[in-house]
Amino acid sequence: MKKLIFISLVLLLVACNNAPTDTRNNTLSDDVEEINLDEKSQQANIKQKNGEASTSSKVADADSSPIVHTSQEDKMIIYNGHISIETKEYQAFQKELKQHIDKQKGYVVHRSIHKDEDNRTNATITIRIPQETFHSFIEQLSTTKITITNQEITGEDVTEQYVDFQARLQAKQKTEERLLTFMDEATKTEDLLQIASDLERIQEEIEVIQGKMNYLQDQSDYSTITLNITETGIVSSTKDKENLQTWAKTKQAFQSSISNLQAFSSLLVVTFVGYSPIILLFLGIVIAVTWGIVQQRKRRNDKKKNS
């Protein structure tokens, strides 16, 4: 009888030690499976809170004024401008434009320049300007000595899209925290592998969402302006252009004649110095033949006088 009681106590202790571990592992598996549902619920709650806050703000504005004005700080708007410009002198306008850009703390991201057959400059310049100075920059641009032939300003409200990314990011980050907690508590290899796989997927999704949010933030903080610049003229008339061409041709002819004279002088020096032995021999023969002919004529003249 005592042996039976002892064996029963031992079995009872073993069962008590194993029960918490099995229960914890089962609970851990159930929690991992429910993560996606909790994540969706968190996104919905965050969006609902954002929507309620936005609605409350609009109601407060409506009570204070009959016209509803949304604060610019609460909005995330991407502005883009396309402006076509004509200027008489491109270089002067470019210097003035650089001063405006530096003053507004902007920067140039693209510049393309080419000249037409009349030597006039055509350029395309893309500029990034802080959003708070976007409209003032365009107004200052209008005061310069240029002619604006076309102007197109567009604005895209991405507030809702950014808020949606924000809600998704917060939900993903909470899920990441839970998965890290589960990983510390897991004891089974299969649970660890499953949690590691889910954690890697969640972290990748967090990086993608953060990248999209950073892009929207950058495009909103700095507006983009594209300027298409056309120079209307450098040479004032056809006559002036012809005079410039005549002077250029005269200068080219003078330089060509100097070059030819130098080449001819060089050729003479090379010829006389290089072929001097042959030239001296030829001159000696010519002198000897000439001297012989002169002496022969002299003898004939003397004979005629004596006879």
What descriptive keywords fit this protein?
DUF4349; 17% strand; Alpha-Beta Plaits; 8 helices; 307 residues; five-stranded mixed sheet; signal; transmembrane helix; disordered N terminus; alpha+beta
Can you offer a commentary on this structure?
By secondary structure, this protein is an alpha+beta fold. The protein has a domain at 35-60 and 72-258: ACT domain (Alpha-Beta Plaits). Helix content is 69%, strand content 17%. It contains eight helices and five strands, in the order ααβαββαβααβαα. Strands 2-3-5-1-4 form a five-stranded mixed β-sheet. Helix 2 (35-64) runs antiparallel to helix 5 and helix 5 (159-185) packs antiparallel against helix 6 (189-221). Residues 1-27 and 52-70 have low confidence and may be disordered. Residues 41-66 are annotated as: Disordered. Residues 42-58 have a biased composition (Polar residues). Keywords: Membrane, Signal, Transmembrane, Transmembrane helix.
Number of helices: 8
User: How confident is the prediction overall: mean pLDDT?
Assistant: 77
Shape: elongated
**Considering the protein shown, what is the CATH homologous superfamily of the domain at 35-60 and 72-258?**
ACT domain
CATH class of the domain at 35-60 and 72-258: Alpha Beta
Computed CA radius of gyration, to the nearest angstrom:
47 Å
Number of strands: 5
Query: What is the percentage of strand-forming residues?
Result: 15-25%
